[in-house]
Amino acid sequence: MHVQRIQPQPTPVPPPDFASATDTAERILVVEGVGKRFGGLVALSDVSLSVGRGSITGVIGPNGSGKSTLFNIIAGTLRPDRGRVFLNGHDTTRASPAQICRNGVGRTFQISRLFGEMTVLENLVAVAHGASDAEAVERALGLLDFLEITGLRDKWGTELSYGQRKLVEIARALMLRPTVMLLDEPFAGINPRLQNRIVDHLEALRQRGLTLFFIDHEMRIVLEICDTIHVLAQGRVIAEGDAAAIRSDPKVQDAYF
Ligand SMILES: Nc1ncnc2c1ncn2[C@@H]1O[C@H](COP(=O)(O)OP(=O)(O)OP(=O)(O)O)[C@@H](O)[C@H]1O
C-alpha cells in the first residue's frame, strides 16, 4: 500500500525587515540602517528615517553631521557601506543616479549646477529627456511662470544672482516631473523676502502632490514649514518629530542651538 508521506511544511518566512518599506501609500522614501565611512571617519552610522508621501520633511544638524552624505546616498551618487534605501517601494540602494531620477527623484544642489553659457530657458529644456523640443519649451515656460521668473528666461546662467539661481535650480529639477524633490540648502545665503517666496512655492508644490525633503540651516523656516524634522549629529539621528517636539528636545538643544 502506498503511504503518502507527510511533507514537512515549509517554515513560514518571517516578514522581511523592510516590509514596512512597501507601505508606499504612506512613505515615499525609507532609509534603513544606513552607514557610511570615509576612511576612518564615520560620516553616517545606522541612520534610519522615512519621509511621508506629500510631506515637507527637513534634515538639520551641525556642520559635518552627515546631511549631504545622506542626500548623496539617496540620490545614488554615493554608495552606503551598509543599509538600504527605498523609493516608491523600490530598493534603490545600488541604483545609478539616472535610475533614481527616473524613479521620480528631483534634486537641487547647495552649489548651483546651472550651465553658465546657456540661457535660463535652455538650461531647463536641456534636461527634458524624452520630451519633444516643443513639449520641453512649453513645460519650461509653465514652470518659469509658476515660479514667477518668466523675466529671466533669456538671461545667461552667468548673469543670474545667487537667489535667482536657487529658483532656476528648482524649476530645472521640476522639468522631469519628480514625485519627490531633494533640496540641498534652498534657503542658504538669500534674503528673507526671497526665502519667503521660496516657502510659498514649496507649499504650492506640496499642494500639487509633490513630496519635499530638504536640508537647511535656516531654523526659522525649517520649524515653520516642516511636518517632520530629523536631526542629525555626528552621523546619527538624535531626534525626530514636528517643530514643537524638536524645539523642546534637550538633545537637540545640546547639539544644535
Ligand atoms: N568625499 C568625502 N571624503 C572624505 N570625507 C568626507 C567626504 N564627504 C564628507 N566627508 C566627511 O563626512 C562628514 C559628514 O560630511 P557631510 O558633508 O555629509 O556633512 P553635512 O552635515 O552635510 O555638513 P555641512 O552642513 O557642512 O554641509 C564630515 O566630517 C565630512 O568632512
In short:
With 257 residues, the chain is an alpha/beta fold. 32% of the residues lie in helices and 25% in strands.
Account of the 3D structure:
- The protein has one domain (26-255): 3-Layer(aba) Sandwich (Rossmann fold), CATH 3.40.50.
- The termini are far apart.
- The protein is globular.
- The chain has helices at 67-75, 97-102, 120-125, 133-146, 162-174, 192-207, 219-225, 243-248, 250-255; strands at residues 27-38, 41-52, 56-60, 82-87, 90-91, 105-108, 180-184, 211-215, 228-233, 236-241.
- Strands 6-7-8-3-9-10 form a 6-stranded mixed sheet, sandwiched between helices.
- Mean pLDDT is 87; it is low at 8-22.
- The protein is of the alpha/beta class.
- 32% of the residues lie in helices and 25% in strands.
- Adenosine-5'-triphosphate binds at residues 38, 41, 43, 61, 63-69.
- Keywords: ATP-binding, Nucleotide-binding, Transport.
- Residues 1-20 are annotated as: Disordered.
- This is Branched-chain amino acid transport system ATP-binding protein.
- InterPro entries: AAA+_ATPase, ABC_AA/LPS_Transport, ABC_transporter-like_ATP-bd, ABC_transporter-like_CS, BCA_ABC_TP_C, P-loop_NTPase.
